[in-house]
Amino acid sequence: MAASARDFDSVQEASSLSVSQNPNLSTSPTASFQSAPSSHGGSAFGSRTIPLANTKHLKPFATEDIKVLLLENVNQTGRDILTKQGYQVEFLKSSLPEDQLIEKIRDVHVIGIRSKTKLSARILKEARNLIVIGCFCIGTNQVDLQYAAEHGIAVFNSPFSNSRSVAELVIAEIIVLARQLGDRSNEMHNGTWNKVSNKCWEIRGKTLGIIGYGHIGAQLSVLAEAMGMSVIFYDVVNLMALGTAQQVPTLEGLLSRADFVTCHVPELPETKNMIGQQQFEQMKTGSYLINASRGSVVDIPALIHAMRSGKIAGAALDVYPNEPAGNGDYFNSDLNTWGADLRSLKNLILTPHIGGSTEEAQRAIGVEVAEALVRYVNEGTTLGAVNLPEVALRSLTMDESNHARVVFIHQNVPGVLRKVNEILGDHNVDKQMTDSRGDVAYLMADISDVDNSTIKDLYERLESLGSRIMTRILY
Q1: Region Disordered: which residues (predicted)?
Q2: What is the CATH number of the domain that holds 96?
Q3: Does residue 105 lie in a domain region?
């Protein structure tokens, strides 16, 4: 790829400068940055890398040449981390139409997105210099992960930084639905005084059924129990319950027992229309449904029918099968044909995909993902990558000024390591690690006693291997 050539060319420039001479040298992300505490305590990487006091600042490119494109109003914390590295950061508040995105992505090395930008194979094919994608959100289904991996493009996300925010939203929606607060508020806004207690409930003593007991489900479980609810959950794997929550063996078993059902599952073929007509029939009459996971999980026409028939007493939706690309009057029947029917329902909370939209969550996501991007660009570390093997080496130190770090991403086929080690074997390899994930393998090696001619020779010989996906040398 073109990005690989830029790696090498800029390495040559960097090798002639000392750390003291160049004020734009990248600072060590492991030494300089600390993630905001997650809902499970600490950074996603904090327990897995040990920064050294005299860490050497690797420079994969001249810092002024690294181009970063951030879309969808990525939080200021993430922008600050990337800007302080000396990268060229372009920031846009919205997503882009596909044709404009293709134009923008052609020359960037790093792109940061949230949930609305779709990075398909067609778009990624145009990304000549792209080495890494940052999803400043939980999900990564908006990226063609397989294509990215096969072309050496790492993908990072933030799997739990917004867990607490989503869990708190769900607790709020449970109470609002149980008390019909949305309807009463709308009536008051229209000048109608309607003081009623019929079919309004306390949540204490009710049963909450959580589908998907991951980071959000577990947080929600603790909050619900603290408010006096009984918690049951269904997951495809056996998990240790928090508090007195109980795992049930089947989805039907959960639906038949729960007063409130809430979905927290990823978007997969297995979860498409996971809650449909059959599942609504299995739920208790007068129960409630909440979906803050993915829009494809709930069959919306089936929900409309279940609410009109009185089977479901209320629902809260934060996600939808088709969502607008930006803010405005776009949530209409042109986007989803059932839009008008859905909005006509009583005791229904509709929110515009704001489960993780709190200042705290967005700050934490900005720090976590931006740190991962810097680590990958500057050090080659793939810890936390969702589509490549997780590989890391301890940092080089200032005492190792004549060392280089080789990153070789290649097809996982027989005989590759033998050929790579024949090339590296002409030099002193201080440390080396490799791992594979499916058809893609990732190798890192630190080599001592190198100069410009050595790096050029290494780069050209590795690039000549037929199994090569991408070669990077960090100096």
Answers
A1: 1-44
A2: 3.40.50.720
A3: yes
Instruction: Check residue 307 and give its pLDDT.
Output: 98
What token pair was written down for 197?
């207690």
Tell me the per-residue pLDDT of 319-353, one tens digit each, with 9 for 90 and over: 999 998 778 888 988 899 999 999 999 999 999 99
Domain that holds residue 437: 389-474
pLDDT of 405 above 70:
yes
Write the CA distances from 241 to 226, 247, 293, 417, integer angstroms: 15, 7, 20, 43
Can you tell me the distance from the alpha carbon of 249 to that of 13, in angstroms, rounded to the nearest whole number?
A: 60
> Cβ distance 141 to 116 under 8 Å?
no
Which residues lie closer than 8 Å to 351 by C-beta, 6 or more apart? 169, 316, 317, 318
Residue 5 belongs to some domain of the structure:
no
Q: Domain check: are 343 and 220 in the same one? A: yes
Among the three residues 297, 332, 350, which one is the final residue of a domain in this structure? 350
Percentage of residues in the chain with pLDDT exceeding 90? 76
- Closest to 161 measured CA to CA, from 37, 55, 306: 37
For residue 376, give every residue at least 6 positions away whose Cβ sits within 8 Å of its Cβ, in sequence order, or none. 131, 132, 154, 156, 382, 385
Report how far residue 254's alpha carbon sits from residue 273's, in angstroms, rounded to the nearest whole number: 17
DSSP 8-state code for residue 275: B
Q: Give catalytic residue positions.
A: 294, 323, 353
CB distance 331 to 324 below 8 Å: yes
Edge-to-edge, what's the strand order for the sheet holding 88-91?
Answer: 88-91, 67-70, 110-113, 132-135, 154-156
Give the torsion through C-alpha atoms of 237, 243, 245, 249, to 10 deg.
30
Query: Residue 59 — very low, low, confident or very high, per pLDDT cuts 50/70/90?
Result: low
Is the distance from CB of 411 to CB of 392 less than 8 angstroms? Answer: no
pLDDT at 52: 52
Domain-embedded: residue 284: yes
Tokens of 423: 């090339």
